[in-house]
Give the backbone structure.
Amino acid sequence: MRASATTLEAEMTPEETQALDTLLQFSSLTGTHLEIGTAAGGTLKRMVALYPKETRPRFVVVDTMKYFPDQMGIVARNLHSVGVDPSEVDFRVGDSWSEFRKAEAAGEQFDFMLIDASHKLNHVTRDLSWTRMLKVGGYVAMHDYAPKFPGVTQAADRFLARYPNYSREKLAGSLLILKKNAESAAAEVSAGDRFAAEIGNFFQQLGGSVRKRIGSRG
Ligand SMILES: C[S@@+](CC[C@H](N)C(=O)[O-])C[C@H]1O[C@@H](n2cnc3c(N)ncnc32)[C@H](O)[C@@H]1O
């Protein structure tokens, strides 16, 4: 069982949650906010509770809800603890890639996204496809941008190199915040980007298991 399932807290450091609070408090974002990967909803409850009920933007959460037993019930309890009715949040229980395809087909738009689901290179790259639906002037935050998670750092670095209309606004702990400054010349994350990420992920996983074997022999 993950610690967050019992503590109900965000899987972020105080420095990271503070940076997120500051961004949301001072950016006047009124459009839909998205969290991909919520765990116990610790960060979600903080973000939702930052806004007064009357002016609160719509929140969408995408998660497979298989992180620990009764994940959905725990998230609901967590939201109740800060006076938020869970029915106010649009939960989409499923894999982020299938949910992305549905959201894109429906023409959805977002002002803010927090990407914090699987940290594998191929999965983070796919999750960055959601930025096609990020409005100009909006922000995407990526958690665990740190050497311990090369899948996240490589996906983010490749994305920034490929889409110069995004700027790196802040790195607080391992929370990387990017801003979309203009429409992208080509839709974010091509089939080629995804293919390269699949190959890269294969070698990252292979490297990881070789290191484990060497470590267990030593
Ligand atoms: C690191 S935790 C999220 C932590 C949370 N953002 C916080 O700050 O407390 C990762 C979450 O991503 C979800 N997840 C992992 N892979 C996923 C996928 N492919 N699609 C949707 N959700 C996924 C897990 O179920 C888990 O709840």
About this structure: The chain has eight helices and seven strands. Helices lie at 3-7, 14-26, 42-50, 71-80, 96-105, 121-127, 150-162, 191-217.
